[in-house]
Amino acid sequence: MTVKEAQMAVHVKYGGVEQIFSGGVEEVWIALNRFFAELVPAFEVSRSLVLSVDLQRLAKDCKGLIGFADNAPHLLVSKEKLTDNETLALHLLAAHLGFKLGMLKTDVLTREELQAKLGKNPKITSTRLGELVKNEIAEKTSDGGYRITGFGVAQMQREWLPKIRAKVGL
């Protein structure tokens, strides 16, 4: 008389992956180990590569540079101390932050709004916006407006904001 090996099933749910391992104990054990050895490290690596932004830290990093009044974002530093690209990027970042914090209805600014905030002619504004789009700091929306990209937010937080803060003495 032979004894049939007991069958088992293990349901694993990790991140966005769900897997069911079934079979004999040894077979399930091997499959589970393979799953953890191969897939979990890949998830950890990919998670470390995703650019994510801590809104609380971003707001703190923007303190003294941007502020909100009358349901609109404003630069708190003189645009004369900033390059055109820094000025435009800060305005786009302020719109993003205001939208994420629920203070603004959209994170998109029109070219005309950005031109008024920059205080330069339409040609200069369009050229500078084109540079920001080319460098993936900003993107042009389907309706012709502009918003900062996720990459742009990360770049602003990591590189641009510290330089701007140093430049304006904050």
Number of helices: 6
Tell me the span between the first and last alpha carbons. Answer: 83 Å
Structural class: alpha+beta
Oligomer: single chain
Q: Kindly state the mean pLDDT as a whole number?
A: 87
CATH fold topology of the largest domain: Arc Repressor Mutant, subunit A
Percent range for β-strand residues: 15-25%
Per CATH, the architecture of the largest domain is: Orthogonal Bundle
CATH homolog superfamily of the largest domain = Winged helix-like DNA-binding domain superfamily/Winged helix DNA-binding domain
Shape: elongated
How many beta-strand elements?
6
Order of helices and strands: EEHHEEHHHEEH
List keywords for this structure.
two-stranded antiparallel ribbon, 2 domains, alpha+beta, two-stranded antiparallel sheet, 6 helices, Arc Repressor Mutant, subunit A, elongated, 170 residues
Secondary-structure map:
Elements: E1 7-14, E2 17-24, H1 25-49, H2 55-62, E3 66-69, E4 72-75, H3 84-100, H4 111-118, H5 122-134, E5 138-140, E6 146-148, H6 150-168
Antiparallel strand pairs: 1-2, 3-4, 5-6
Helix pairs in contact: 3-5, 3-6, 4-5
Q: How would you portray this structure in words?
A:
There is one protein chain. This protein has a two-stranded antiparallel sheet with strand order 1-2. Strands 3-4 form a two-stranded antiparallel ribbon. Strands 5-6 form a two-stranded antiparallel ribbon. The protein is an alpha+beta fold. It folds into two domains: 7-49; 55-168, Orthogonal Bundle (Arc Repressor Mutant, subunit A), CATH 1.10.10.10. The protein has six helices and six strands. Strand 3 and strand 4 form a beta hairpin.
